[in-house]
Amino acid sequence: MHTEQLIDGVLKGNIRAIARLISIVENELPEAAQAMRSIFPHTGNAYTIGFTGPPGAGKSTLVDKVTLTLCRQGKKVGIVAVDPSSPFSGGALLGDRIRMRDISLEKDVFIRSLSTRGNMGGLSRAAGDIAKILDASGKDAVIIETVGVGQDEVDIFRTADTSVLVLMPGAGDDIQSIKAGIMEIADIFVVNKSDREGADGLIKSIQQLLDSNPNPGPWRPPIVRSIAVQGEGIDELLSAVQSHREFLVAGGFLAARRKERLRAEIIRLVERRISKLIQTQLRHNGRFDALMEKVIAREEDPYSCIDRIVGPLEKE
Amino acid sequence: MSQEKIIRVMVAKPGLDGHDRGAKVIARALRDAGMEVIYTGLRQTPEQIVTAALQEDVAALLLSILSGAHNHLFPRVMQLLKEKGGENILVIGGGVIPQDDIPGLKNAGIREIFGPGTSTEVIVNFIKENAH
Ligand SMILES: Nc1nc2c(ncn2[C@@H]2O[C@H](COP(=O)(O)OP(=O)(O)O)[C@@H](O)[C@H]2O)c(=O)[nH]1
Ligand SMILES: [Mg+2]
């Protein structure tokens, strides 16, 4: 398929085209940049919701039920489900679809599983681009599920329009196990598996945490209790998302969030490009090796070495 | 980080049989061989399998079955793939499948059938060589 045809297919919501373009972007194939350029003007219409939380908390099950409800309301939904890759083989077992069965045949739902591929910074780029492709394909909502562990995942979570943190009772120090910084940026807390013992205690500790915030913002994150497997709490969760959305719009925060998302994205791309540039330059003309030899022989120190490498770039 | 393209594979269990130990063993072996493996769980209809395979843009699809319904389900998957533009996907079968049924399945477009005793290495290599 030609890139032009591909873009056309994506904009029309064609499954093959969407799937192909996602692969192109994920693998950073040469045509990716041009394709994303053509896609970009058609983005900005979907509302993005991030779901994060420890493995097994019930995120995929929640996403399944939430999406089903949205479908019944006539909404089109795109889902990006991220799972960690194996540090040993680079491969990954992507199992989120196991819990997304109710929506597996919905015509207006597109689900894509994504591995972290172990590369720093790469995940948020790929997830962001995939979200844009789904947005351009006409989805009303784009949901991104991640295990809230790495910095990349925190970044993704931070840039969703609404960020939902899913926790479950048990494990006692559950809250402590979440990556520092995630609690602070959650817009909505879900205490899932509240059919289990300990849900009340968990709710209490989240409340305490929210109360102890020395400078609380204008939005107090609500805590929603759910039993995802039974579909309980889904309406409450969706109305919490709706309230948050209205709050963002009314206060002008939505525009600010999206601006921040774009800003972070551009900075990331610039950093990536510059670091690639430096790496290829250094490798290709052997300058780096020559400098290294001098440093090893103590004829040059590492700090002047950096000046020599970065200095010329700074002058421009 | 290797520049080699990462192979995406889907392991699916069509039919009504109730356990997936074998499928999971293969799924893990493929992951350990560096592939991204999408696993969709038990009791998937051909429609569900094909929809997922297309959305995930997998290079290979491994159908694992124990229930004996392969003669109906495998060709149905192949037919749907053809209808929906997924004819490039390498489809292979695994599980309990009588020798006599194999020619018919291959005729329907299943590229290879791996019986219960097959080492996972053989399957890994077959996918590496034939999926693109
Ligand atoms: N008891 C109980 N189990 C649940 C609930 N929600 C999900 N589960 C189960 O918890 C396990 C993990 O769910 P999953 O959605 O895959 O969690 P994820 O790893 O956060 O995406 C699955 O076996 C679900 O069936 C719930 O509300 N109550
Ligand atoms: Mg999950």
Structure, described:
The complex is a heterodimer of chains A (316) and B (132). With 316 residues, chain A is α/β, with parallel strands linked by helices. Chain A folds into three domains: 1-42, no CATH class; 43-251, Rossmann fold, CATH 3.40.50; 264-315, no CATH class. Helix content of chain A is 51%, strand content 14%. Chain A has helices at residues 3-11, 15-26, 32-39, 59-72, 122-136, 151-159, 174-177, 182-185, 199-211, 234-250, 253-285, 287-296, 302-315; strands at 47-53, 77-83, 92-94, 109-115, 141-147, 162-167, 188-191, 223-225. In chain A, strands 4-2-5-1-6-7-8 form a seven-stranded parallel β-sheet, sandwiched between helices. Chain B is of the alpha/beta class and 132 residues long. Chain B has one domain (8-130): Rossmann fold (3-Layer(aba) Sandwich), CATH 3.40.50. In chain B, 41% of the residues lie in helices and 18% in strands. Chain B is built from five helices and five strands. Chain B has helices at 21-32, 46-55, 70-84, 102-107, 120-130, and strands spanning 8-12, 36-39, 60-65, 90-95, 112-114. Chain B has a five-stranded parallel β-sheet, sandwiched between helices. In chain B, strand 4, helix 4 and strand 5 form a beta-alpha-beta unit. In chain B, helix 2 packs parallel to helix 3 (70-84). The radius of gyration of chain B is 13 Å and the shape is globular. The mean pLDDT of chain B is 91. Strand 3 of chain A pairs parallel with strand 2 (36-39) of chain B, so a sheet runs across the interface. Bound molecules: guanosine-5'-diphosphate and magnesium ion. Magnesium ion (MG) is lined by residues 59-60, 96, 145 of chain A.
